[in-house]
Specification:
Blueprint lengths: L6 H25 L24
Protein name: ATP synthase complex subunit 8
GO molecular function, one term: proton transmembrane transporter activity
InterPro entries: ATP8_metazoa, ATPase_protein_8
Length: 55
C-alpha cells in the first residue's frame, strides 16, 4: 500500500518538528511573559451563612 511508505512523510514530519522546535518556538516564547513566583501566602476566606427569607 502506498500510504504505508514512510519515506516522504517521515522527512516532512521531522522537518516540521525541527522548524517548530528550533525556529518558531523561541520566537513565540519571547512574546509571552511568565509570571514571577509569588511570595504572598494565600488567604482563605470563611463563608458567611446565607440568611434565607423563608426560613
Amino acid at each position: 500500500m502506498p500510504q504505508l511508505n514512510p519515506s516522504p512523510w517521515l522527512y516532512i514530519m521531522l522537518t516540521s518538528w525541527f522548524a517548530f522546535s528550533m525556529i518558531l518556538q523561541p520566537k513565540i516564547l519571547t512574546f509571552t511573559t511568565t509570571n514571577p513566583p509569588s511570595t504572598k501566602t494565600s488567604t482563605t476566606t470563611t463563608p458567611s451563612p446565607w440568611n434565607w427569607p423563608w426560613t
